[in-house]
Structures are given as C-alpha cells and as structure tokens.
Write a structure and sequence with these properties.
This protein is mostly beta strands. It has one domain: Stage V sporulation protein G (Arylsulfatase, C-terminal domain), CATH 3.30.1120. The protein contains one helix and seven strands. A five-stranded antiparallel sheet has the order 1-2-3-4-5, with helices on one face. It is globular, with a radius of gyration of 13 Å.
C-alpha cells in the first residue's frame, strides 16, 4: 500500500512515502517510510499502547540489549513527523 501524503503547510518538508501493515500480530500495527528534506528514512513503526498509538523511530539493539536510535529528531520536527505518520496510517489502525 503506497500513499504519499504531503503536509498542509508548504514550508514543511516531511512526506509519508509508504505505510504498510505489520506482518506479525502484536503491539506494532504498521511500518512507515518518510522523506525528510532530501533524506529517506525507513522503518518508523506505529505502536499501539494504552488505548492509543505512537510512532517509534528506527533504532538498533546493542550487545547489552539496550536500544540506540539510528536517527533522532527534536520538536517540532518530531511531532510533525509523528502526526503525518499517524494520519497516513489511520486506515490501518
């Protein structure tokens, strides 16, 4: 399933390229790929938690079992990305 969703404000440079359902049952409901400026970031996850959903950003697991982010965003960019991904994936939740 591919759906490119441009944001409302032309100054924003986040586009959701693809949202696809998770192949396994569990808390992760879907995965998304975005374009942020000229970079494509793959593997954001839409996770069900406490009756709602949040966006998990790509991370890797270290040898000690601790998660380390692959890419980090601060607000307001993080909030814009999360809103765009959740809006694009609304039909899969």
């Amino acid at each position: 399933m591919t759906n490119v969703v441009p944001l409302q404000n032309p100054n924003q440079s986040v586009f959701v390229l693809q949202v696809r359902p998770s192949p396994k049952p569990g808390a992760v409901r879907a995965y998304a790929d975005i374009q942020y400026h000229n970079a494509i970031i793959k593997g954001l996850s839409i996770v069900a938690h406490d009756g709602g959903h949040f966006v998990g950003f790509p991370s890797t697991v270290g040898k000690n079992g601790k998660r380390f982010p692959i890419v980090e965003f601060s607000d307001p960019d993080r909030s814009q990305i999360a809103k765009a991904v959740l809006d694009a994936g609304r039909n899969l939740l």
